[in-house]
């Protein structure tokens, strides 16, 4: 049908429906015409050209008896169907009460015709690509209770006419390009419970009186340009449960009335211009779980009344002007996991009382004025501490040997203090150290302990600007994961050991040590230790080499004998197992399963939990190893193949909080998005948690890009349309996660799974729900993903954010375009894929020289699309987080590239 004819037909449908309005309930002929128009425009799956439209998928009609004829259409629910086209014909369905077209690919404006639906109560058009203004005519849908237009590209101001929607309970308009102010009529809506308008460009004040006319429960306005004070009216009725106002320009003080809200669980008011003291009434909000007020201008002390909030999990007061000491009573907060008070004027001795918080995983006292000695029992038995930031204070004395008890520590920052003495050998016991060990700018003396070599997971080591002497021990070659090292400005001597991370470092990493020589320093050891140094060194090296060779021969002989005995014993055991299996005996004594379930009823008979557990015992079943889990292939007795994911729970939080885990998994099992891997069940035994997923026969994007052959041994052939489709799939899945306030912890090509049709599904989604108590909106007490994909700001914020997710996704795009890994030796020293691409113009290289020629030279169309995607990837990997686009915008740009 010609576009003008289509529009003319829709106009006639609407006109006839309005002329027949008095008899609309009885005459459903208009419904049939409108539904046929929707079928032609949207082409939803399951809508055939003929038959009863009430039998179509996602359509609900009233009983025929209610009208005396055919039933009237009362609901159309078609979320996540990939729909495109004009849906204005829905305005000709007078009995329609529910319309859900969320998470599709709808473009154009929001049809003003929907305002004619007097019975419409539920309208969800979120997660589309709708543009233009919010139509004022929607005010005609006077029965609306739920209106969700979030995550589109709508612009302009919120129309004042919407104030006529007196029954409105939820208004969600987040993630658009709306401007202007929040209209005053929001304060007079009598039924308003949820107001969500975050990530827009709204300005002006929060309407005074908001919360007085209705029992407002959720107010989320973060990432706008709002000004003025936080109205005290928000708390007057005591109904508020969630308040999120981060990243605005709000000023004034925190209203004392905040204590009226006994059910208030989530307060996030950071990154504003708030001043004054935190009111003592905060202790009356006894349900408080998360309190973030960082990066403001708050003064006074930390209220002792926080101790009355027994559920408090996160307390972030960083970068204010708080003074005094950390109150001892905070040690009564048994559920506290993160205490962040960095960048204030706090002082006194180390707050030992907070160590009584048995669940504390992050303690950040950095950039304050604390002094005195560090406690010996800084990590007592059972400590869950993962992040310990005490840098830029005045701590003195030595580093306590008790630091060796911090067996779960991921990052230790003790730099810029007055610590003395030697580095305790016990630090080598902290094998979990992974992100950083920073002891720089202190007064440490003595030699480097050989035990440092046991830290085989450590990435960054900074011991600069101390008074450490002696040689660099060769045992440090055991630091296999080391990327950044700084031993400068000490009193080290001798030759720098031959070790990749040392020689790849800049000379400045070892400078300031007068008697240190060798690579990467341009200092000849003979010039320091005399001409005989090299000869003596060679003689010693020769003797050592002979000893090493002799030892190796002996060890090899012993190992060969042991291996032969082991293989003989294993063969004997296998033969015994076969005999037992033939006799019907139990071969392996599986552990006792504490809890297990399958969420999908049709699969309950097909899945055997003991088989899932046993599959994790064999390395041959391993499919992949991620930052948070290891995946195994498990074949059920029924023949079904399942992917079993064994969690790497650093602190066993998951297995110790089974109720929380089960609740979150059940919730995730009902998240229905085609580009997200959903759990189909779980198994808990001992201290292990297994998550069950559908097996993905085509592996991961990592394997597709970097393996020469597929699972069947066939040569892989690059296919740009397939790769672009995968990129769009992942972008849509990630955009959906951000829309439901979930931040992914490990976006990388190894966590992008491909089903039988090469549709992409983003995995590890459940990790953020299980390991992050704030469900992705606060700092994360876990490693933020895989190397090469981690955004640069994470090094100093230790926070996983939405812009950080966009950066990681941008790395995946570059990986697709270049067919290169995020970190490769060919990029040069200290250069990763992002830096290599961004510095191409400085090297005189064109985009064609960056992109994989096996793809870009196939056709002009492919090359044009790849250049467009390269621009998207460059935006996503901007160094400044504020310059990166939101994922919904990324989806739009990729779709435009595909259609170009």
Mean pLDDT across residues: 83
Give the proportion of residues in helices: 10-25%
Number of extended strands: 44
Question: What share of the residues does DSSP label as strand, in percent?
Answer: 15-25%
Low-confidence stretches: 1-27, 534-542, 580-588, 650-656, 710-715, 772-783
Describe the sheet with the most strands. Answer: 19 strands, mixed
Kindly, what is the distance between the CA atoms of the first and last residues, rounded to a whole number of angstroms? 24 Å
Rg from Cα:
31 Å
Shape: globular
Q: Helix/strand-derived class?
A: alpha/beta
Transmembrane segments: 544-568
Subcellular location: Membrane
Domain Protein kinase: 617-900
Protein name: Protein kinase domain-containing protein
Task: Walk me through what this model shows.
The strands form eight sheets. The protein has a 19-stranded mixed beta sheet, with no helix packed on it. Strands 37-41-42-40-39-38 form a six-stranded antiparallel beta sheet, with helices on both faces. Helix content is 24%, strand content 17%. The chain is globular, with a radius of gyration of 31 Å. A hairpin with a 5-residue loop joins strand 39 and strand 40 (641-647). By secondary structure, the chain is an alpha/beta fold.
């Amino acid at each position: 049908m010609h576009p003008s004819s289509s529009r003319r037909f829709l106009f006639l449908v609407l006109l006839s429906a309005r002329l027949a309005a008095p008899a609309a309930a009885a005459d459903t002929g208009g419904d049939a015409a409108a539904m046929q128009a929707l079928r032609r425009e949207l082409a939803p799956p399951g809508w055939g050209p003929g038959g009863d439209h009430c039998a179509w998928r996602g359509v609900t009609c009233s009983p025929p008896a209610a009208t005396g004829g055919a039933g009237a259409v009362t609901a159309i629910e078609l979320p996540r169907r990939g729909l495109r086209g004009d849906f204005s014909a829905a305005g000709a369905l007078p009995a329609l009460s529910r319309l859900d077209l969320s998470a599709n690919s709808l473009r154009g404006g929001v049809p003003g015709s929907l305002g004619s639906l007097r019975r419409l109560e539920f309208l969800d058009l979120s997660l589309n690509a709708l543009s233009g203004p919010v139509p004022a005519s929607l005010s005609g849908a006077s029965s609306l209770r739920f209106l969700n237009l979030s995550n589109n590209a709508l612009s302009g101001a919120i129309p004042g006419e919407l104030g006529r929607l007196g029954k409105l309970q939820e208004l969600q308009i987040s993630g658009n390009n709306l401007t202007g102010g929040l209209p005053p009529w929001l304060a007079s809506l009598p039924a308003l419970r949820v107001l969500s308008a975050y990530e827009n460009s709204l300005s002006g004040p929060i309407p005074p009186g908001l919360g007085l006319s209705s029992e407002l429960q959720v107010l989320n306005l973060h990432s706008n340009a709002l000004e003025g004070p936080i109205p005290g009216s928000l708390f007057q009725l005591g109904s508020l449960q969630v308040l999120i106002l981060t990243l605005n320009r709000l000023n004034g003080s925190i209203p004392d009335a905040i204590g009226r809200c006994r059910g208030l669980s989530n307060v996030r008011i950071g990154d504003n211009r708030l001043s004054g003291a935190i009111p003592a009434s905060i202790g009356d909000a006894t349900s408080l779980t998360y309190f973030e007020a960082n990066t403001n201008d708050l003064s006074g002390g930390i209220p002792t009344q926080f101790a009355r909030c027994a559920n408090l999990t996160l307390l972030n007061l960083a970068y204010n002007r708080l003074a005094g000491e950390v109150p001892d009573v905070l040690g009564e907060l048994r559920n506290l996991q993160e205490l962040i008070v960095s960048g204030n004027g706090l002082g006194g001795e180390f707050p030992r009382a907070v160590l009584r918080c048995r669940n504390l995983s992050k303690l950040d006292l950095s950039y304050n004025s604390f002094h005195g000695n560090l406690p010996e029992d800084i990590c007592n038995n059972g400590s869950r501490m993962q992040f310990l930031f005490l840098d830029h204070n005045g701590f003195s004395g030595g580093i306590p040997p008790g630091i060796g008890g911090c067996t779960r520590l991921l990052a230790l920052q003790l730099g810029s203090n007055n610590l003395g003495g030697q580095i305790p050998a016990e630090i080598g016991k902290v094998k979990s150290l992974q992100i950083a060990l920073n002891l720089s700018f202190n007064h440490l003396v003595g030699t480097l302990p050989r035990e440092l070599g046991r830290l085989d997971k450590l990435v960054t080591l900074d011991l600069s600007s101390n008074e450490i002497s002696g040689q660099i021990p060769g045992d440090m070659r055991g630091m296999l994961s080391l990327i950044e090292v700084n031993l400068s400005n000490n009193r080290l001597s001798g030759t720098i050991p031959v070790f990749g991370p040392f020689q790849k470092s800049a000379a400045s990493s070892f400078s300031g040590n007068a008697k240190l020589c060798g690579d990467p320093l341009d200092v000849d050891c003979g010039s320091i230790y005399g001409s005989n140094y090299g000869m003596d060194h060679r003689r010693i090296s020769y003797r050592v080499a002979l000893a090493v060779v002799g030892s190796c021969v002996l060890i090899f002989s012993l190992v060969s004998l042991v291996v032969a005995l082991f293989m003989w014993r294993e063969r004997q055991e296998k033969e015994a197992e076969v005999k037992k299996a033939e006799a019907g005996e139990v071969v392996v004594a599986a552990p006792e399963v504490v809890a297990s379930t399958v969420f999908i009823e049709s699969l309950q008979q097909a899945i055997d939990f003991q088989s899932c557990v046993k599959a994790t015992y064999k390395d041959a079943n391993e499919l992949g190893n991620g930052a948070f889990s290891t995946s195994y292939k498990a074949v059920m007795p029924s023949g079904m193949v399942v992917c079993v994911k064994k969690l790497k729970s650093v602190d066993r939080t998951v297995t110790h909080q089974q109720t929380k885990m089960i609740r979150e998994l059940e919730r995730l099992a009902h998240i229905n998005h085609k580009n997200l891997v959903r759990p189909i069940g779980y198994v808990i035994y001992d201290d292990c948690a297994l998550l069950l997923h559908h097996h993905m026969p085509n592996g991961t994007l990592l394997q597709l890009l970097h393996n020469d052959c597929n699972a069947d041994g066939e040569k892989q052939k690059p296919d740009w349309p397939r790769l672009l489709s995968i990129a769009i799939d992942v972008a849509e899945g990630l955009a959906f996660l951000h829309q439901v306030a979930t931040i992914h912890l490990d976006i990388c090509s190894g966590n992008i799974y491909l089903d039988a049709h090469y549709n992409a599904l983003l995995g590890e989604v459940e990790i953020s729900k299980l390991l992050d108590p704030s469900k992705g909106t606060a700092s994360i007490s876990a490693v933020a993903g895989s190397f090469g994909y981690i955004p640069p700001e994470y090094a100093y914020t230790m926070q996983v954010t939405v812009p950080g997710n966009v950066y990681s996704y941008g790395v995946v795009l570059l990986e697709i375009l270049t067919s290169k890994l995020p970190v490769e030796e060919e990029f040069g020293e200290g250069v990763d894929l992002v830096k290599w691409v961004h510095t191409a113009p400085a090297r005189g290289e064109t985009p064609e020289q960056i992109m994989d020629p096996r793809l870009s030279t196939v056709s002009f169309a492919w090359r044009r699309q790849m250049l467009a995607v390269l621009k998207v990837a460059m935006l996503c990997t901007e160094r400044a987080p504020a310059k990166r686009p939101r994922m919904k915008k990324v989806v739009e740009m990729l779709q435009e590239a595909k259609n170009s």
